[in-house]
Amino acid sequence: MQLTKYLTLTTLLFIQTSLAAPAPQPQVARACDYTCGSNCYPSSAVSSAQNAGYNYVEQGGHAGSSSYPHVYNNYEDFDFPVQPTYYEFPILSGGSTYSGGSPGADRVIFNEDGELAGVITHSGASGNNFVACE
Q1: Annotation marks residue 70 as catalytic
Q2: Catalytic residue among 88, 112, 115, 134, which?
Q3: 62 burial class (0-12, 13-18, 19+ CB within 10 angstroms)?
Q4: Annotated catalytic, 134?
Q5: 106 in a domain, yes or no?
Q6: Which PANTHER family match (predicted)?
Q7: Which CATH number is 53's domain given?
Q8: Which of 70, 76, 112, 134 is catalytic?
Q9: Is 62 considered catalytic here?
């Protein structure tokens, strides 16, 4: 009888402790598929900027009164995985889509078929040059 009471009490304490402890919550971190200087971009943000820029190219327009998107001449000789002609379009660290004004330092590069070539930045580059984002 004592053993049964002991096992029942132990079982109840185990169940109570298990129920009282909250289940661990998964950590949701913002994925940095591209890092440009101190800016972190998930691939979804890159795709959004790329699509917005490509839509302007297809329509023959620009974002606001800016010159973006415009042809990117690749003076830095990046080895992009897609064929030119390349276009550059700003990607903004705040998450919104560029619509004119100051473009910031970071750009998505895509070709005339809308294929992503890469993500580049003025951050860490000399003069008006670009370096690849990591």
Answers
A1: yes
A2: 88
A3: middle
A4: no
A5: yes
A6: EXTRACELLULAR GUANYL-SPECIFIC RIBONUCLEASE RNTA (AFU_ORTHOLOGUE AFUA_4G03230)
A7: 3.10.450.30
A8: 70
A9: no
